[in-house]
Design goal:
The structure is a homodimer of 349-residue chains. Chain A has 349 residues and is of the alpha/beta class. Helices cover 25% and strands 27% of the residues of chain A. Chain A has twelve helices and 18 strands. In chain A, the strands form four sheets. In chain A, strands 3, 4, 5, 8, 9, 17 and 18 form a seven-stranded mixed β-sheet that branches. In chain A, strands 12-11-10-13-14-16 form a six-stranded parallel β-sheet, covered by helices on one side. The first copy, chain A, starts with a strand and ends with a helix. Chains A and B meet through strand 14, strand 15, helix 9 and strand 16 of A and strand 14, strand 15, helix 9 and strand 16 of B.
Chain lengths: 349, 349
C-alpha cells in the first residue's frame, strides 16, 4: 500500500501539489479507510499557510473524511471491511484523563492528536490528513457513517457538523426557543439546519442581504442584517441562545445585548485578536459568553446518527483535487455554498 | 415624621452633609423603617460623584439598610411594628414582567427602581437611600432580618452579601469543588465566606501579599498572588468556578485559563472599559465568561435566612455618619476591612 498519493504543501507559500506519503500498516486495533470524499475546512487553509504558526511541511490537510473500510486489525469491532467510515478532527488522545473518559477527547489533558499537523505517535513526524488516498486510524477514532445519506455531503459533518451540533446540544436548544446564528458559511449553514431540526425558531444574522433567501430555505424564520442598528434593537433581550460562527474580529457586545436573562452566546469561530467585552452586557441579565470546540467521539457519532435519522447533510460544491488551490482562493472570498468537498476519485486519475 | 434628617450631596464635587428630605406617608402596602445601620458600598461613592453619569442632586445614597419597623400599612403581612427589617438595592419594579414573576426584580423589563437615584413613582423626583433616619418601602421589597445576627454586620449582606451569594448559588457551587475568588474587598470577603460555607475549597487571588492571613481566616484554603505567573500556572485548568469581584480593568484571560472544562468565571464588578477576551481561552475547555447583578427579592431573603442559620455576617468597621466623607477617601484606597457601616444613631445626635 505504501507509498500512497496525497496532496501536500511544501512550504507556507507553496501550492498544494501531488506528492506521496507513507501510512503505517494497520495494527490490531487499527482501521484502514480508502478515502472517497474529503471536505475543505478553513482550518486546512490556515494550517497550510502557517497562519496559526507551527505548521510542519510537507503538510497534508483534511479532517472531514469519509470512505470505505478496506482493512481492519483483528481486535476491531466497530466496523468491518466494506463498511462506510469517517474520520474527523481527531485521530488519537490519551483515552485515560478525565476529559477523555468523559468523552471529550478534544480537550485531552495530555493533548489531543489532531488529524493533521500533530505529532504522530505511531509513525513519527506529523499526522497527515484526508487529502490522500487512504488513512489508517485507531478504531476508537473511527466514526460509523449512515448508509442513508449522500456520502459526499456527509463529509463536512465531521467538522462543520459537530462544531455546531455540540454547542446547540450542550446549551439545551429545544423546541420553542429563539436561537440566533451569526454568519452563514460552512458552520453557520449547519447551525441553522440543526437549530431548526431541534425545533427552535432560528434567526440568522448576516452582513450580506444576498443570503436571505438561502437562510430561509435552510430553516431560518427570519434574517437580520447585523449592520442595521434599528433591526438589531428590535431583538434586544429576546434570544435564548446565539451561536456565533464568525472567525473575523467583530462586535460581540451587539449580540450579547440580544440575549434574554440567562442567555448564552457561544463562539465557535476563533478571531485572532482579543474581543472587547463590556462587563455591563454580561452583568445585566446574567448573560454568558462561551466557547466550544468541535466535539468528542461519542457526540460526533450521536450527531451522525441524528443526521441519518433526519436526513441532514451539508450543502456542498464538489471539486476535483486538482482544483484545491483555486478553491482556497474562493474560500478566502466566502465564495462557496457552503462547503467544498473533494471527490477523491480525482486523485487516482 | 416629615421632614427627616439625611446626609446628602448637593453636587458631584460637594461633600455629603446634613440635610433634610421628605418620605411619603406609608400607604396600605408600605412599611416604614427606622434605619439603625447602613452599609457603605462603592456604588454610593460612584453615584455621589456622578462617576456613572445621571446623578440627580441632592443625592442621598445607601442601599445596605437595616432597622426596626415603626409603622405598617393595613395590608402588610410580612412584618409587624417592632420587627427587624432590611432594604437592599431595590425598592420597586413592575412585579408583572417575566423577570419579576420569576423573582429577578433586578432585571425588571420595565426597569427596576433602585433604592437611590432612581425615579420615585410615589413621591416624584428621585429615590433617596439609607443615609437617613427612616425609609418607607413597599412590603414586597422589605426583607426579614434574622434576630440572631449582629445587626450592624448584617447590613452589608443586602448588597455585598447577595451580590456574591447569588452567582455562587446559580452556578451550583457545592462541596468538593475548587472555587476561586478574585479580590478581597467588601464583595470578595463575602464570596470567600459563602463559598467556604457551601463546602468548596476556596482559593483567593489577590495582588496584596498582606491579605493572606485574613483570607485564610475567612475561609480560603490557599492564597495566590495573581502577579506571580508561575503560581498562576500551577492552577491551570483546575477551577470549577471563579467569582471575580474586581471593578478595575484587569486581565480576565489569566483567570479563564484556570477554569476546568465547562468552568465559569463570573464578574460581579463592572469595569468601565471593555475587557479584551481571547476567544481561544473560551473555546478551549468550553469555558464561560458570565456576569451577575445583585439578586432578586426571593433569593435575597434566602441568603439572609442562610446567614441566620450559619451565623454569617460581614466583617465591618463602624463609623459615625459625620465620618462619611473621610470613609469615602479611605474606600478609594481600599483601606477598610471589609465594609464601613454607619451607626445611624449618630444622625440623631
Amino acid at each position: 500500500m505504501n507509498p500512497i498519493k496525497a496532496y501536500a504543501a511544501a512550504s507556507k507559500t507553496a501550492p498544494l501539489e501531488l506528492s506521496s506519503i507513507h501510512r503505517r500498516d494497520p495494527g490490531p486495533c487499527d482501521v484502514q479507510i480508502e478515502i472517497l470524499f474529503c471536505g475543505v475546512c478553513h482550518s486546512d487553509l490556515h494550517t497550510v499557510r502557517d497562519e496559526w504558526g507551527g505548521t510542519v511541511y510537507p503538510c497534508v490537510p483534511g479532517h472531514e473524511i469519509v470512505g470505505r473500510v478496506v482493512k481492519v486489525g483483528p481486535e476491531v469491532k466497530k466496523v468491518r471491511e466494506g463498511d462506510l467510515a469517517g474520520v474527523g478532527c481527531l485521530v488519537d488522545s490519551c483515552r485515560n484523563c478525565g476529559n477523555c473518559r468523559d468523552g471529550f477527547e478534544q480537550f485531552c489533558e495530555e493533548g489531543a492528536i489532531f488529524t493533521y499537523n500533530a505529532q504522530d505517535k505511531h509513525s513519527g513526524g506529523v499526522t497527515y490528513g484526508g487529502y490522500a488516498e487512504s488513512i489508517v486510524v485507531k478504531e476508537s477514532f473511527v466514526l460509523r457513517i449512515p448508509e442513508s445519506l449522500d456520502l459526499a455531503a456527509t463529509a463536512p459533518l465531521l467538522c462543520a457538523g459537530i462544531t455546531t451540533y455540540s454547542p446547540l446540544r450542550h446549551w439545551n436548544v429545544t423546541a420553542g426557543q429563539k436561537v440566533g446564528v451569526v454568519g452563514l458559511g460552512g458552520l453557520g449553514h449547519m447551525a441553522v439546519k440543526f437549530a431548526h431540526a431541534f425545533g427552535a425558531r432560528v434567526v440568522l444574522f448576516t452582513t450580506s442581504p444576498g443570503k436571505t433567501e438561502d437562510a430561509l430555505r435552510l430553516g431560518a424564520s427570519e434574517v437580520v442584517l447585523s449592520k442595521n442598528e434599528a433591526e438589531m434593537k428590535q431583538h434586544a433581550s429576546s434570544f435564548d441562545f446565539i451561536l456565533d460562527t464568525v472567525s473575523a474580529k467583530h462586535d460581540i457586545n451587539a449580540y450579547l445585548n440580544l440575549l434574554k436573562r440567562d442567555g448564552t452566546l457561544t463562539l465557535v469561530g476563533a478571531p485572532s485578536e482579543g474581543l472587547p467585552i463590556e462587563a455591563f452586557n454580561l452583568i445585566s441579565g446574567r448573560r454568558q459568553f462561551a466557547g466550544s470546540l468541535i466535539g468528542g467521539l461519542p457526540e460526533t457519532q450521536e450527531m451522525l446518527d441524528f443526521c441519518g435519522e433526519h436526513g441532514i447533510t451539508c450543502d456542498i460544491e464538489m471539486i476535483r483535487i486538482q482544483q484545491i488551490n483555486e478553491a482556497y482562493e474562493r474560500l478566502l472570498k466566502s465564495d462557496v455554498k457552503y462547503r467544498f468537498v473533494i471527490d477523491m476519485a480525482s486523485l487516482k486519475g
